[in-house]
Amino acid sequence: QAYRYRRQQADLGNTVDTKVLDNAVVRNAKAAQRLGLPDDADLVRLERLRYVDDKLKQHVITFLSADLEGG
Predict the structure, then answer these.
(1) DSSP string, 6-50
(2) I need a surface site. Which of 29, 32, 43, 55 has the fewest CB within 10 A?
(3) Distance (Å, rounded) from C-alpha 64 to C-alpha 67?
(4) DSSP for residue 54
(5) Structure pTM?
(6) How far apart, in whole angstroms, are the C-alpha atoms of residue 17 and residue 69?
């Protein structure tokens, strides 16, 4: 999805930059449930700022499974 956003903006002639604010392993039951994981699963919480042509456009928080092996 991030790639699509960057490509969409590039197609419009814009430059997209990202600043990572935080990258941590956390537990968040609600996010885990949305990912189809147990409530106590370890997740990676990635917090970013997205800029388009040096103007802040998005504040994004993404949760990913911390289990890279999938099991």
Answers:
(1) HHHHHHTT--EEEEEEEEEEE--HHHHHHTT--TT--EEEEEEEE
(2) 55
(3) 9
(4) T
(5) 0.80
(6) 30
CA 55 to chain centre: 19
pLDDT at 1 over 90: no
d(CA 65, CA 53): 31
Query: Residue 53: left (phi > 0), alpha (psi -120 to 50), or beta?
Result: left
7-32 pLDDT tens trace: 899 899 999 999 999 999 999 999 99
